[in-house]
Here is the input.
Amino acid sequence: MYKSFKEMPVWQEAMSIAEEVFKITENYPKKEDYGLTSQLRRSALSISANIAEAFGRQHNKDKVNFYSFARGSLTETQSHLEYAKRVGYIEEKVHQHMDEHLDVLHKDLNKIMLTLKS
Here is the structure.
């Protein structure tokens, strides 16, 4: 059993993704500061925040809800990254790398949720 959410591999991976998104968006055009850049950073950071909140909940139903919110933020992040690729803000290689990391995290969140539901 983990003593802190910071010990959880799933939270660590989510935080790593948020850090990568921050670095990727540093080079986005200034006109996107209050648009795509902000939305992408917030959705990426929301993944780890919801995992942390799930950790702090006592009841499994509450935990599942917050892991579900984390999964929703994850897919939102994937959508923003897809748009960024399509408009030429990120290269295909970078997009593919991020998408693969997000897919792994998505599967991990699903496993946690299935365990909690049973």
User: Anything to note?
Assistant: The radius of gyration is 15 Å.
